[in-house]
Amino acid sequence: MLVQIVPWGSPRYIQSLGLRFEVLRRPLGLVFDPATFLDEVNDIHLIAHYKDWVLGCMMLSRVEEGVKMRQVAVGHSEQRLGVGSEMIRFAEQYAKEMGFKAIVLHARDSAVPFYLKHNYELVGDGFLEVGIPHHAMRKSFVD
Ligand SMILES: CC(C)(COP(=O)(O)OP(=O)(O)OC[C@H]1O[C@@H](n2cnc3c(N)ncnc32)[C@H](O)[C@@H]1OP(=O)(O)O)[C@@H](O)C(=O)NCCC(=O)NCCS
Q1: Is 91 in the pocket of ligand 1 (CB under 6 A)?
Q2: Which of 79, 97, 115, 129 has its C-alpha lying 20 to 30 A from 71's C-alpha?
């Protein structure tokens, strides 16, 4: 398995849109909206793949605090095999090398244990996003 940054609009990015829909949107009854992807042109797109098979994906968006980790998804049948952890490791190394001071994210409550395991801290109270409970989390790279 390899984790790589891929360009917006590339074949692997397009494949990741399908994965995101299946893992993040379809289970919530949300539709596929191609227009939203135009907003992602300036984001950093990470893909975990084995040959041509996209196993997982995430996005990093530049924000005031550092980067925001978004759209983290691993294929249903590839979950709990270490793919998400590998993407986290890659993203953290990249963020540190690029001089970002922190990674922030909005975690679905079901995924909070995953981020806690990777030493992300809970920030503030929970809230609803896309109709489901979330918590803000953060990992700082400076003291
Ligand atoms: C959450 C997600 C990204 C984690 O990726 P993954 O590849 O499945 O996770 P890993 O195999 O690297 O997990 C490492 C550890 O994190 C923890 N973990 C991962 N998913 C977990 C979950 N759903 N609940 C509790 N702990 C979890 C476990 O401690 C796990 O180790 P273990 O399998 O030995 O117990 C993935 O399961 C996923 O896409 N879930 C559905 C979509 C989602 O919730 N995305 C995040 C939105 S914020």
Answers
A1: no
A2: 97
- Shortest CA distance to 72 belongs to which of 37, 109, 102, 47? 47
pLDDT of residue 123: 98
Beta-carbon neighbour count of residue 6 at 10 Å? Answer: 19
Is 62's C-beta closer than 6 angstroms to any atom of ligand 1? no
Using CA atoms, how far residue 142 sits from 58, 64, 67, 117, 129, in Å, is: 23, 15, 14, 19, 28
CA distance 66 to 58: 16
Q: Is the CB of 110 under 6 A from ligand 1?
A: yes
Q: What is the CATH number of domain 2-100?
A: 3.40.630.30
Rounded Cα distance between 50 and 77, Å, is 14
Determine which residue's CA is closest to atom 31 belonging to ligand 1.
Answer: 80
Residue 8, pLDDT > 90, answer: yes
Confidence of residue 31 (pLDDT cuts 50, 70, 90): confident
Q: How far is the CA of 80 from the centre of ligand 1 (A)?
A: 6
Domain boundaries, given as residue ranges, for the chain: 2-100
